[in-house]
Specification:
With about 300 residues, this protein is α/β, with parallel strands linked by helices. It has eight helices and ten strands. Strand 1 and strand 2 (about 60-70) form a beta hairpin. The protein starts with about 40 loop residues before the first strand and ends with a helix.
């Protein structure tokens, strides 16, 4: 597999404190396939981010007052038990859902108050999504699946084909470009999905349980691909239960009961050298990354 080089105020209720790092602005712009200058501050920012479902006594606080900055070029893994709010957080950061309270900023542009059309345009140009279930178009070939985001963003058919060929070559699937998803293995489908996510040189890539449906060999391929993206400086946020995936990140944020419970920066060998705000509180007092991932401090 060749190296992938990308071109170019919520209600917390005392259940854990928030995580912050750098700040800044500069929204992404420009035609598909042309990578603008990286933002001076964080690629992603959440401010008091809250998502509540239900009414009255049936209220569910899926995300509860999260503050989070993701600097450009950082790989962030979001971990935690099922139901802790990590996938909901990812959907809010990517503009797939809207917060009940709080703000979402992408490259310096506040996006949570945008209209549906403006938000759809921004997602096409600035956010690449990778899903556990791949979400490929079954009637389209691998190459056509990768071309589609570029075409939707306004690229010419020729430019979209060229970009798709380049990306499939980089993820090791040049020989499978004309195959339908049904003719590909799970790992190959996920590599097509990663290539599709990169089609418009996104400011950020958001991956939700990207290895959840893969066997060990396919997981290894995806981990190697993500490690190459990390080395190339692509901003990447991953939700995962898999400690092997989390170990490829620069930083791991663990969630509990919708809030940030722990924030740890990893050293080069994937061990938990803790630069953590020491979040406590919450129901059960927080997990702590050492207990969650069995990494030493």
């Amino acid at each position: 597999m060749k190296t992938v080089v990308p071109r170019g105020s919520g209600r917390n209720r005392g259940r854990g404190r928030s995580s912050r790092s750098e700040t800044g602005d500069s929204p992404r712009s420009g035609p598909a396939g042309r990578r603008p200058a990286e933002p001076a501050g964080p690629a992603l920012r959440a401010v008091g981010l809250t998502r509540v479902y239900g009414e009255d006594e049936s209220l569910v606080w899926a995300v509860d007052g999260v503050d989070l900055d993701v600097p450009a070029g950082q790989t962030l893994a979001v971990t935690g038990p099922s139901g802790c709010g990590k996938s909901t957080l990812l959907q809010l950061l990517g503009g797939l859902d809207r917060p009940s309270e709080g703000e979402v900023w992408l490259g310096g542009l506040r996006i949570d108050h945008l209209g549906e059309r403006a938000l759809a345009r921004l997602r096409r140009r600035s956010v690449g999504f990778v899903f556990q279930a791949y979400h490929l178009m079954h009637e389209l070939s691998a190459a056509q699946n990768v071309e589609l985001p570029a075409l939707l963003a306004g690229a010419s058919p020729r430019a979209a084909r060229r970009r798709a060929a380049e990306l499939l070559q980089q993820v090791g699937l040049a020989g499978r470009a004309r195959h339908l998803p049904s003719e590909l293995s799970g790992g190959q489908r996920q590599r097509v999905a990663v290539a599709r996510a990169l089609a418009n040189d996104p400011l950020v890539v958001l991956a939700d349980e990207p290895t959840g449906n893969l066997d060990s060999a396919a997981t290894h391929d995806i981990l190697r691909l993500f490690d190459e993206l990390r080395a190339a400086g692509q901003t990447l946020v991953m939700v995962t239960h898999d400690e092997r995936v989390a170990a490829t990140a620069d930083r791991v944020v663990s969630m509990r009961d919708g809030a940030v419970a722990d924030d740890t920066r990893l050293d080069g060998d994937g061990r938990g050298t803790r630069h953590t705000h020491g979040y406590g509180g919450g129901h059960g007092g927080g997990t702590g990354l050492g207990a969650l991932l069995r990494w030493e401090d």
